[in-house]
Design brief:
Elements: E1 5-7, E2 10-12, H1 14-38, H2 46-66, H3 70-80, H4 92-109, H5 113-132, E3 143-149, H6 156-166, E4 167-178, E5 183-192, H7 198-206, E6 214-218
Antiparallel strand pairs: 1-2, 3-5, 3-6, 4-5
């Protein structure tokens, strides 16, 4: 019995479909495990990792459908252009993993199986090496300080006096009104002096802000703000 499907874009068998989808699933799942193992922030999403696996298989399927037919490719682009994705990507590395599974899916769908395996393994190893040896990490630990003050007076000078005492460097990042103008919130990036603790900074700032809220975020580069 002949299980070969014939259309204008060429010929592919049931075996080709099974291999492309199975291989894209295995490689996308492996990429998902690499993502899970190397993830450091608090915003880990199981749904996102599952989407990576499904996306790899979908791209493989799309490449099988398109084949070498240019008209079909343009029709597919037009159909997909109506889709709007509104979920914000919290980390730039998440975008990299999306493109990785897309590339692997495209290689599987176009039946470049060796390329798909080699690329997935090589890039996965690079990600693991960067994670293991903590490449490009900054040795300077900074903090984010959020200070809320009443809007009836200029508290900038008094706050900066405290920051000069407790930090080696600081920079005003933003200033805005909150709670309908009842308070002003200022955000600084700072670097604490050696021997100074965040609790000491909070106590000193609270004494200058009429008891309003003071927040110090330590290691904010690893935390979702």
């Amino acid at each position: 019995m002949d299980f070969t499907f014939q259309d204008l874009s060429g010929t592919f068998s049931v075996a080709d479909i099974a291999i492309a989808l199975s291989l894209s699933f295995l490689l996308s799942a492996a990429i998902g495990w690499v993502y899970r193992f190397t993830h450091r922030n608090v915003s880990y999403s199981q749904s996102y990792v599952q989407t990576l696996v499904v996306l790899g298989m979908l791209i493989s399927l799309i490449m099988l459908v398109v084949g070498s037919n240019i008209a079909r490719a343009f029709a597919l682009v037009g159909a997909l252009s109506v889709v709007r994705f509104r979920n914000a990507i919290k980390e730039t590395r998440d975008v990299g993993f999306i493109f990785l599974v897309m590339g692997v899916g495209m290689a599987c769908g176009t039946r470049f199986y060796t390329l798909a395996v080699v690329a997935a393994v090589a890039i996965g190893m690079v990600i693991l090496v960067m994670y293991r040896f903590d490449w490009f990490a900054s040795s300077v630990q900074r903090q984010v300080v959020k200070v809320q003050v009443p809007p009836d007076a200029d508290h900038t000078a008094s706050i900066q006096d405290v920051l000069i005492q407790h930090t080696s460097e600081f920079e005003l990042v933003s200033m805005e009104t909150i709670r309908g103008g009842a308070l002003t919130e200022m955000m600084y990036t700072v670097r604490l002096r050696k021997g100074h603790e965040p609790g000491q900074l909070i106590s000193a700032l609270s004494a200058r802000t009429s008891g309003q809220r003071v927040t110090v975020l330590t290691g904010y580069d690893q935390t979702d703000l």
